[in-house]
Amino acid sequence: MPTPDWSMSYPMTPRSVRLARLHIRRRLTLWNWPGDIDDAVLVTSELVANAVRHGRLPGHEVWLRVAVDEEEKSALTIDVSDPVSEFPVVSQSPSGESGRGLLVVRGVSESLDWFPRSDVGKTVRARLATN
């Protein structure tokens, strides 16, 4: 059986965050993913929101990729790519309403990291275990 893997691009607008949440919930439900789908939706929402807010460049889109690693007990990888090469900073003391997203992602994820893309920008990756 092939490993579940899905990706989609979205415009760099705030509406894309809601659309990405709907798509990830539907996809994981169709796959019958055994992990916490609400956590996966939360992580997706935070990462796409950050990309839309901080990674916007004219003529580019945000990319979402989700894959289940069957060899790692159905661990879920969520990749969000944007065209800005600067890596995010996880603030330990966020101020006001901003700066909390990556702390939330780090709190519910097994791991959180980022890497440069070969063509342009970066990818932020979160992995969720099934527990």
What would you say this structure looks like, in words?
This protein has a 5-stranded antiparallel beta sheet. Helix 1 (15-31) packs antiparallel against helix 2 and helix 2 runs antiparallel to helix 3. The protein is built from 3 helices and 5 strands. It is an alpha+beta fold. The two termini are 22 Å apart. The longest helix has 18 residues, at 37-54. It has one domain (5-128): Histidine kinase-like ATPase, C-terminal domain (Heat Shock Protein 90, 2-Layer Sandwich), CATH 3.30.565. The protein is globular.
Total strand segments = 5
- Helical fraction: 25-40%
Share of β-strand residues: 25-35%
CATH C-level label: Alpha Beta
Q: Which architecture name does CATH use?
A: 2-Layer Sandwich
Rg, please?
14 Å
Distinct helical segment count? 3
Shape: globular
Helix-strand category? alpha+beta
Query: Spatial order of the strands in the main sheet?
Result: 1-2-3-5-4
Low-confidence stretches: none
The main β sheet shows up as: 5 strands, antiparallel
> What is the name of the CATH topology?
Heat Shock Protein 90
The overall pLDDT average reads: 88
> What series of H and E elements makes up the topology?
EHHEEHEE
Task: List the keywords.
27% strand; 131 residues; alpha+beta
In short:
The protein has 3 helices and 5 strands; from the N terminus they run βααββαββ.
What order do the helices and strands come in, and which of them pair?
Elements lengths: L4 E6 L4 H17 L5 H18 L7 E8 L5 E8 L18 H8 L2 E6 L5 E7 L3
Helix pairs in contact: 1-2, 2-3
